[in-house]
Amino acid sequence: MAQWRENDAQWYEEKMLFCTTSGRMIARLFLAEEIDGRTRIFATPEDLELYKDYVLVERGEDYRPPENIGDTYADLMVK
Predict the structure, then answer these.
(1) Which of 11, 40, 68, 76 could form an SS bridge with 20, CB 3.0 to 4.6 Å?
(2) Residue 79 — pLDDT band, cuts 50, 70, 90?
């Protein structure tokens, strides 16, 4: 079950937290849920739902875009 947590960084610290689904930077409050033995961080309940319903199903847990994704995108956009 997901829990709301607070980023415990002090005002002078730069502790960056990012949403697992969207990549958005999280300033203060975040949603944390343990999925397959690893705690994942989400910005909103919708991001958590999207992660479970799409990312895990279509991409898998440890999906990373290919190294040349920028080049591929540029090639497709030029044509």
Answers:
(1) 40
(2) low
Whole-number Å distance between alpha carbons of 15 and 34: 21
**Is the whole model's pTM more than 0.90, yes or no?**
no
Q: Using one digit for the tens of pLDDT, what is the confidence trace for 44-66?
A: 999 999 999 999 988 888 777 77
Contacts of 72 (CB under 8 A, 6+ apart): 66
Query: Which token pair is 55?
Result: 């990312």
Q: Write out the chain in H/E/C secondary structure.
A: CCEEEECCCCCCCCCCEECCCCCCEECCEEEEEEECCEEEEECCHHHHHHHHHHHHHHHCCCCCCCCCHHHHHHHHHHC
Ordered by start, the domain boundaries in the chain are 3-78
